[in-house]
Amino acid sequence: MKEQVLVSGGAGYIGSHTAVALIEAGYDVVIIDNFSNSDMGAVEGVRKITGVEVPFEQVDCCDKEALRAVFKKYPFKSVIHFAAYKAVGESVADPLKYYSNNLNSFVNILELMKEEGRNNVLFSSSATVYGEPVELPVTEQTPRQPATSPYGNTKQMCEDILRDTAAAYEGIKGIALRYFNPIGAHPSALIGELPRGVPNNLVPFITQTAAGVRECLSIFGDDYNTPDGTCIRDYIDVVDLAGAHVAAIARLVEGKNKESYEIFNVGTGNGTSVMELVTAFERVNELKLNYKIVGRRSGDVESVWADTALANDELGWKAVRSTDETLQSAWAWEKKVRGL
Ligand code: UFG
Predict the structure, then answer these.
(1) Strand extents, DSSP E, 250-332
(2) Does residue 210 line the site of ligand 1, with CB under 6 A?
(3) Is the model's pTM score more than 0.90?
């Protein structure tokens, strides 16, 4: 029998790409999502790409009884928990929304794993836990910095909740994957990132500007202490990122983990500036982007990129897609969404 994996938030950007990667790697997948920031389109996309009628349940992880019904219905041993709110600015304006949703949903997942005897859990963490990093590249040992937003704080708190849970309860093992900056879309252009309203993140803003949905990209600051003055990030193709989840699940399923709780950075190991990314987007897609330099965005970190040695060595996983390829997939997806 195939190993089954529950994917919470599986209709979201990273969740949908991970569902595809799991199915392609031979896992059975069950998707749950409350559609707070997604819709059935992504689930249909997963089904179309894989040719598998993936089971889907519309469930909010904060509703423990509804979640329990999912645990009773499906025999999965492993859970990948993506379901969470993720807008930094909104979390500052409405912190209780973030603490209530992001913490309760994860605690419910873990309680049910304990109550129902399930074993393996992956948590979607973020490079945001490193804040303005004290060293570059950042390793998993690089100290976390105090969170600068309630969103970032929920990532740190959920990491700690997972660490303590995996330490205390025999049979529960966890991995936190610290994502750097996921970009791009599935090469089929059947799934991708679909932000509601004005995008907060760089690449969706770039593609929407190229599509004419936004008039002009604002580049937030060119006076940073970097070679071209714009901020540096580690942009990772979402399909590569999805592959890291498959490797991490396999590690837990096969009992290859060295501790009950482990952490891995998931990035490429390369830093790219905002200006380099914009220029690459124009070059690979043969278009001109309307952009202007504006003031810094509050809370932005100057530079951050990953040391990926641990994930490379322990998970046997490495990001392989080029930024050019990724920026082409991002544009192909935007064109598809806009009917261009
Ligand atoms: N940027 C622009 N213009 C935009 C959007 C972004 O210049 O319209 C710049 C930002 O200033 C930053 C870079 O592009 O230098 C990347 O910005 P993103 O918003 O795409 O990504 P961040 O690195 O800011 O965000 C990431 C994750 C968040 C996490 C955050 C914490 O996407 O989930 O790191 O710092 F909270």
Answers:
(1) 261-266, 272-273, 291-294
(2) no
(3) yes
